[in-house]
Predict the structure.
Amino acid sequence: MEVLNGFAAALQPLNILLIFGGTALGVLVGALPGLSSPMAIIVLLPLTFGMEPLPALLAMVGVYVGTKLGGSFSAILLRTPGTPAGACTALDGYPLAQRGEAGRALGLATMGSTLGGIFGWLIAIIFVPLLATIAVKSTNADIALVGVLGLVMVSAFVRGSTLKGLIGVILGLLIATVGLDPMAAVPRFTFGSVGLLEGVSFAAALIGFFGIAVVLADMPLIGSKSFLTADKVSVQMPKFGELLRRWKSIAIGAVYGTGVGAIPGVGAEGATWLAYATARNISPEKEQFGTGHPDGILAPEATNNAVTGGTMLPMLTLGIPGDGSTAVMLGALVLHGIQPGVLLMRDESTLVYGILAGMLIATIFMALIGWTAIRAFIYVLTKDRSWLFPFVLVFATIGAFASSNAMFPVYVALFFGVVGFCLERFGFPIVTVVLGIILGPIIEYNARVALAVSGGEWSTFIDAPHRMGLVIALVALMVWEVIQHRKQVKQAKVTQPIN
């Protein structure tokens, strides 16, 4: 019944229009190398301030789903992936396009993405209620431990070193402590600034990290244009029989996408390569992979979109984003006055099922847009994409200003834009900083309430079997990462050339 209520809410005319517009924007952004799904969602953020939470989130879900397919367009036609996850598709998509079969390659990518997205949606619609049933029984100590575990998991699994991930998380936690103490109302780290008494504007921080920083990083792209492998391209959808013969590659991609996507911080990048390698290893034609093999397109594309269902699991049940896009969506929930986390399903079940319904609708729109509007996207691909930079900066500035109708958040956004640019240049994953900002207040509040209820006894965090299990998992993960780091250091010393 709740699923039907979610679809009824998502199928309202305005919501349908927002999903379609968001999906189209997502396909466009995904097709443009250098742009990203989080950045597109940030651009949408100021437009959603006056909306109800569900329409705002549905537009963002459309962008999230659309970028997954859009990244394959440029990967196939330019050999320049629009998204990091699209790099795997280029291995076989581009050679197929070079042979004059660009339409077939695009059709395979579209169907792979669509089927993977539907599978991911099925997993999400099945498991979100099950996980939420467990989550609603959580106490303050449980919520705090789950938050800490999420921070450590993201730090461990994001690209780059665990140490850099932890530094990013700590930076995010420090940013989250700025402002009045939530229980004692004492100013913290405001340095005498009245603008910081209410804390760092969350909207400004998101806009800086995911909007302005991206523009600064992509400045070298100004004046660059792309050249396609084919002038006239139309999508040629694969026949049902071909998809049936290649079901293993689609199934591998769908399973890897939902499974890996559910691990916070991993996202689609690692999952696509795992699926590609597995499909190649089980194929009797493995030597043809990399030369334009259809399975080399279907497997990563199915993975790419199945990830959306996987990332929604921790986001909607635990308040832990699976990747940068879901981190921004969590931020949007906070900005609309909704606390993400284990109680979201209990308090906002219609919103949760509306988001899940929007995922399926966006997946269908994605297939239709990819099939019918390919020529428009090809036209955009050949243009200098730097014309988008002023547009992004203008909306970023408007969004920061509109968050509190003051100029101070604009300065904050500019500051974090520069900080985000510097962090990315040195290999620090931005998503860990944003996650620290999101989860910091939740962890602090629940930990302090748990301690207050227990009379200041820290043993409250280990006085139940499931809490003890969370602590053991936390310690085991940290020890594992230390061991892996030591092994990498030893291998580096062994392979280091002798002068």
Observations:
- Strands lie at 179-180, 187-188.
- The chain has one domain: 2-490.
- Residues 153 and 264 are 6 Å apart (CA to CA).
- Residues 2-490 form one domain.
